[in-house]
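[#protein-structures] MJ: dropping BHLH domain-containing protein here for a structure pass
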Amino acid sequence: MTKMNGPALKPDRKTTERNRRIHMKSLCFKLSSLIPPNEFKTSKDMLSQQDQLEQAANYIKQLKERIEELKGRKELAMRVAGTNNNLIDAVMIGLRLPVIDLRDLGSSLEVMLISGLNKNFMLYEVISVLEEEGAEVVSASVSTVGDKVFHSLHAQVKISRVGVETSRVWQRLQELIN
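AK: finished. structure tokens for BHLH domain-containing protein:
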């Protein structure tokens, strides 16, 4: 089966090809084992090797798209965080209180209210305004820094098709705190 080419033995073409096929089969099996079972339209056992490779390629494309989507969301969040920090800095150096910052993030809203200790309002009133306008508050926090009170609320839109009219929410919140 092997030829003598000098001091080293070299496998013949049949053996080399058989080893290559075994190696490729092993690699295909490893690849298909990395793909979650729910990504296969039918059972892995029922698919040919070519179909499994196509499914794996499609899954990798989906992962790449998801990565791009998450990068975009991260960039947006970083911009919003940077903007909020600028808002807080502006308040700290003397903007007229109270201040409302309302961010429409598509399927969610972020509300930042900053008031003085002497001009406070009830947080439940703000939550009521958001809920009446079609948003559900998922988190809220209140903190005091010096003589300023910071209210931060995050809300999800209840019905994504309808959404929330942010200008109306902003106007109602202005009426509430002024």
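MJ: nice. The mean pLDDT is 79.
AK: one more thing. The CA atoms of residues 80 and 86 lie 10 Å apart.
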